[in-house]
Amino acid sequence: MDCIFCKILNKEIPSYKIYEDEYTYAFLDIANDVDGHTLVIPKKHCTNTLDADSETLHHVIDTVKLISNHYVNVCGYTGVNILSCNGEDSGQSVFHLHYHIFPRIKNDGKFNFPKPNMGSGKFEEIQNKLKIN
Ligand code: AMP
Ligand code: ZN
């Protein structure tokens, strides 16, 4: 399988390792957009959150939490954004499950969520379309 993150795990491609345990690996994203932008991946390949087994997800989110707490409690950051793209149309470009961590500091202006009022505002219609039970 031609997966760039599996190649990183196999050390065929170098990476800036932040953390590793039996199930997960974390390294710096090379996008060079936000200092400390980190990716957390499982050692077991799966495409994204939608096809991952629960055990894999547990391991990955535990590592996301551990690193996030390290950034806030030890490294001087005051918050983190945690993001995952799932599927090509959501912006996923590497098809090996990963969670992005963006370390944040008050007023750093680094990362913004979509602005309010970009939706239709038709909450009842949306609820009827999306609700599960
Ligand atoms: P996504 O677009 O959510 O699938 O995220 C994929 C991320 O992988 C992007 O932010 C890329 O910058 C990052 N990326 C791609 N290749 C590498 C690499 N060799 N080392 C570190 N990060 C990478
Ligand atoms: Zn992979």
Task: Give structural notes.
- With 133 residues, the protein is of the alpha+beta class.
- Helix content is 26%, strand content 19%.
- Strands 1-2-3-5-4 form a five-stranded antiparallel β-sheet, covered by helices on one side.
- It starts with a helix and ends with a helix.
- The relative contact order is 0.17.
- It binds adenosine monophosphate and zinc ion.
List the defining traits of the structure above:
alpha+beta; five-stranded antiparallel beta sheet; 3 helices; binds adenosine monophosphate; binds zinc ion
Strand order in the largest sheet = 1-2-3-5-4
What's the SSE pattern? HEEEHEEH
Q: Please compute the radius of gyration using only Cα atoms.
A: 17 Å
Fraction of helical residues: 25-40%
pLDDT < 50 stretches: none
Topology at a glance:
Blueprint: H1 4-9, E1 17-20, E2 24-28, E3 38-42, H2 54-73, E4 79-83, E5 99-104, H3 123-130
Antiparallel strand pairs: 1-2, 2-3, 3-5, 4-5
The structure holds adenosine monophosphate and zinc ion.
Describe this structure in a few short sentences.
This protein is an alpha+beta fold and 133 residues long. It has three helices and five strands, in the order αβββαββα.
